[in-house]
């Protein structure tokens, strides 16, 4: 324990620890209420209790027979106004009288009615009656430590009275002067030191009036609406240590010790309407005991400390070297895990692309299947319509009737010419006008029925006879022509829609196959570049525990020519002459040692002259390792322990190779399936393109198939127009008489021309109907073939789509597994990085400790430890000697502490 305390003391130059008394070092002592003889406000009590709980200032109340507390009242600048000393005389023996030495005046008993007798020699005798005595008195003695408080506002010094109510950046400086020196003897030497007082000052700052509070040496505690600020100073301690300036600079390169050993501290804050309550300063001289560092003693411990410092210096160097070795190892680990993580990430990306491609592919297959079904349905519907059209035209004898219609139209034209001659003579004009008016109504009735807005009647039948030259006079024939045209139109719409959907589905299917092919190629590349297994070694069957199923090498040797340097076995004896059945030179049951060792090396990426990527290890390479031993007879065998390890590792590699075989086999099957599927999709795409091109002419042919309907409708509309014009002209001619003969002749000319147009149109109609009929027959045959092919396509795509769910589910599981592997390796990678960073921080810290701490301490104090120890003992003795301010018996243990309270600063 003594050595530990010595090392602790020396390593931080002792003073750094003394200066940390405000950092809640865990002091457990509290001020006894019996020493609270001076009246205190609640604010003073709260601040004092906080300081006692947070500081390391302890007292020896539990051991001392006399406990002394010096209460000092000072103004806001620190100047002393009053000093009151409170004394507690412990009557541990329950004596009737207690004798005490004191310099105090105005003595009063503050707790009890006991009286005393002044003996006139500086002593008092108390009539204790077995009780403790509590009294207080006054003194005009100077304090051992003087305190000065100064204030600056925005960089300019200001008095407390002027500062009250002001706002700005304020600095409060507490400065202490130690006036208490002692000369103590240590090992026959007289050493002068200052009594080691630790000064802890505290104050409460209202958070409504103060912000951004800082302290140069101490701490700031936020407590609700207040800041509790405590600063520390150790006046005279640095001077007592008296360390050489050169060594001091080596120890305090950043000025931290200089700050902590200072005789002042400063509090800086932003203030609004400045106001400060009282401050409290506590002082104690027994600071070495407070830290449990009062065990510095004889020179033998200093010698031990010197030895320990040498060992510490050597050990620090070794620790730095060991940490560097550890850092090299963690760096290698981090790099290896990083490569593994990159590989699993590529695998995850590949399986993700595969999954997305399969999803797109299955979506395309589904759409193609839907389009094929609709195509088959539309083709069947179109086939039904074309059949009905052909049958209807055949049953109605449309071709012959169209010819007759043309003949009838010519007769109408001839009749119009005759009518024109008759009208010229003005003979039976009125009768003909009524006949043509009736004819016009009958033609209009036929036109309405064709359009679906009229009903069948005698006039309708007569009208159909007129526009068809008597070929169509019954309702059934007319309905057949109308229904055939409607069915054909519906078939055309359905067919074009189905082909459009099929074309869109094939586009998506082609896109999906492109993605799928790219993904499979990516997996093959990943397998080739990342899972670079040595197939020759993995498929060797010389070990019964290894995988024996041949694995196709995805990376065939690009140079199948024989090795130009075959290096034949210099000992071709099949069993090596030792009867073990192979050509190695080992004996006994370890005949396959070298093969076993080589089997543990599944590939290192170094392609040799034979084209493969393995790297065989020869017996000679292994003789110098711990794996083999040389026997007394000169033979070489593998050690049992190492053989067992190698055998286990070989089995592990066999298991990994087996898993890889399955993966490779599945990837091969997938590649074959994708190639076959790609060819099928290509052929299907060509068929769809051909079908699309052929279907482009279908609407034109089918429109020809409905020409009978439109020819009849056109004939009705043309005849209606001609008759309307003719009746208008004839009416005008009949109404005007011979005086308008010129106009009548013009009207007759128009009628004659119109009749000729009707005749010419019906002649074209007859020719078109014949063409329509021939086209309808060809269309019906083509649609039959289309319907059959579309049905087969629909069945095929249906079978293809039925496997979609299983394919998507399989690739999803593969992707999920790759994701879990990637996540696991990611966590491992993060851990390796953190480990490497942590070891780097450890290395940096150890290097800094070695270079800036241990070695500087070793160099700074090597040879001077005895002198340093003497100074520390002198400071310790000085602290122990100062036990009373108001006086105490020389043979009595006593303790003393000081509490200095300043006036508050408030606006008037």
TrEMBL record:
Database matches in InterPro entries: xxxLxxG_rpt (IPR023908)
For region Disordered, the annotated ranges are: 535-615
- Signal peptide location in the record? 1-26
Q: Which segments show compositional bias classed as Basic and acidic residues?
A: 537-546
Q: Which stretches does UniProt call biased (Pro residues)?
A: 551-573
Keywords recorded for this protein, A-Z: Signal
Name recorded for this polypeptide? Cell surface protein
Which species? Butyrivibrio hungatei
């Amino acid at each position: 324990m003594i050595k530990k305390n010595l090392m602790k003391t020396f390593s931080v130059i002792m003073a750094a620890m003394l200066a940390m008394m405000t950092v809640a070092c865990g002091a457990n002592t509290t001020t006894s209420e019996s020493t609270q003889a001076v009246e205190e406000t609640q604010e003073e009590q709260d601040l004092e209790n906080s300081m006692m709980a947070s500081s390391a200032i302890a007292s020896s109340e539990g051991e001392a027979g006399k406990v002394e507390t010096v209460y000092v009242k000072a103004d806001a600048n620190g100047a002393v106004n009053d000093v009151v000393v409170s004394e507690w005389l412990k009557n541990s023996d329950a004596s009737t009288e207690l004798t005490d030495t004191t310099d105090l005046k105005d003595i009063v008993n503050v707790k009890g009615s006991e009286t005393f007798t002044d003996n006139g020699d500086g002593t008092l005798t108390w009539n204790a009656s077995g009780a403790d005595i509590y009294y207080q008195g006054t003194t005009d003695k100077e304090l051992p430590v003087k305190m000065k408080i100064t204030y600056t506002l925005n960089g300019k010094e200001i008095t407390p009275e002027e500062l009250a109510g002001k706002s700005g950046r304020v600095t409060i400086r507490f400065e202490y002067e130690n006036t208490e020196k002692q000369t103590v003897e240590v090992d026959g030497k007289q050493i002068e030191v200052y009594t080691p007082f630790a000064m802890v000052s505290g104050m409460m700052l209202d958070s409504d009036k103060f912000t951004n509070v800082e302290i140069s040496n101490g701490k700031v505690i936020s407590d609700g609406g207040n800041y509790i600020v405590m600063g520390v100073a150790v006046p005279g301690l640095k001077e007592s240590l008296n360390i050489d300036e050169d060594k001091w600079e080596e120890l305090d390169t950043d000025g931290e010790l200089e700050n902590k050993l200072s005789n002042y501290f400063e509090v800086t804050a932003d203030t609004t309407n400045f106001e400060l309550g009282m401050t409290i300063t506590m002082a104690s001289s027994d600071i070495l005991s407070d830290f449990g560092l009062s065990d510095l003693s004889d020179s033998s411990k200093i010698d031990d400390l010197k030895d320990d410092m040498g060992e510490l210096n050597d050990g620090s160097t070794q620790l730095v070297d060991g940490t560097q070795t550890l850092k090299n190892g963690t760096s290698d680990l981090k790099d290896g895990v990083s490569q593994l993580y990159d590989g699993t990430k590529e695998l995850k990306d590949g399986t993700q692309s595969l999954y997305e491609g399969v999803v797109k592919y299955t979506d395309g297959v589904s759409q193609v299947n839907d389009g094929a079904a609709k195509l088959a349905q539309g083709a069947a519907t179109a086939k039904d319509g074309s059949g009905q059209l052909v049958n209807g035209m055949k049953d109605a004898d449309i071709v012959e009737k169209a010819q007759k219609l043309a003949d009838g139209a010519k007769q109408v034209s001839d009749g119009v010419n005759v009518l024109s001659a008759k009208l010229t003579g003005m003979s039976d004009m009125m009768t003909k006008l009524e006949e043509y008016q009736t004819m016009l109504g009958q033609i209009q009735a036929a036109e309405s029925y064709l359009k679906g807005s009229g009903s069948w009647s005698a006039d309708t039948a007569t009208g159909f006879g007129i526009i068809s030259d008597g070929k169509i006079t019954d309702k059934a024939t007319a309905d057949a022509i109308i229904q055939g045209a409607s069915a054909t139109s519906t078939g055309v719409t359905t067919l074009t829609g189905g082909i459009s959907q099929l074309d869109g589905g094939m586009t998506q299917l082609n896109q999906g196959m492109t993605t799928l092919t790219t993904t499979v190629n990516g997996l093959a590349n990943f397998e080739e570049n990342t899972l670079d297994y040595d197939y020759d070694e993995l498929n060797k069957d010389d070990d019964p525990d290894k995988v024996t199923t041949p694995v196709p090498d995805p990376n065939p040797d690009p140079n199948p020519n024989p090795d130009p340097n075959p290096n034949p076995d210099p000992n071709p004896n099949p069993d090596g002459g030792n009867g073990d059945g192979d050509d190695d030179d080992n004996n006994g049951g370890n005949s396959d040692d070298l093969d076993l060792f080589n089997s543990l090396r599944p590939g290192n990426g170094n392609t040799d002259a034979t084209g493969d990527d393995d790297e065989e290890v020869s017996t000679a390479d292994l003789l110098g390792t711990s794996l083999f031993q040389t026997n007394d007879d000169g033979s070489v065998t593998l050690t049992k322990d190492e053989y067992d390890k190698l055998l286990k590792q070989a089995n592990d590699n066999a298991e990994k190779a087996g898993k890889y075989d399955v993966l490779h086999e599945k990837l091969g099957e997938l590649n074959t399936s994708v190639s076959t599927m790609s060819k099928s999709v290509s052929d299907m795409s060509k068929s769809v393109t051909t079908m699309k091109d052929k279907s482009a002419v279908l609407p034109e042919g089918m429109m020809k198939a409905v020409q009978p309907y439109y020819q009849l409708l056109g004939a009705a509309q043309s005849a209606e127009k001609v008759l309307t014009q003719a009746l208008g002209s004839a009416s005008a001619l009949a109404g005007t008489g011979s005086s308008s003969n010129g106009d009548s002749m013009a009207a007759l000319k128009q009628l004659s021309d119109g009749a000729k147009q009707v005749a010419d149109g019906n002649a074209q109609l007859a020719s078109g109907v014949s063409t329509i009929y021939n086209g309808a027959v060809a269309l019906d045959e083509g649609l039959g073939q289309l319907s059959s092919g579309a049905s087969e396509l629909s069945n095929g795509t249906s079978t293809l789509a039925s496997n979609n769910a299983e394919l998507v589910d399989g690739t999803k599981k593969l992707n999920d597994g790759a994701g879990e592997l990637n996540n696991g390796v990611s966590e491992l990678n993060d851990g390796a990085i953190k480990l490497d960073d942590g070891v780097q921080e450890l290395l940096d810290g150890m290097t800094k400790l070695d270079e800036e701490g241990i070695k500087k301490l070793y160099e700074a104090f090597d040879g001077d430890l005895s002198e340093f120890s003497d100074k520390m003992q002198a400071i310790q003795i000085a602290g122990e000697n100062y036990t009373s301010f108001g006086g105490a018996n020389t043979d009595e243990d006593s303790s003393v502490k000081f509490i200095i309270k300043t006036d508050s600063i408030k606006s008037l």
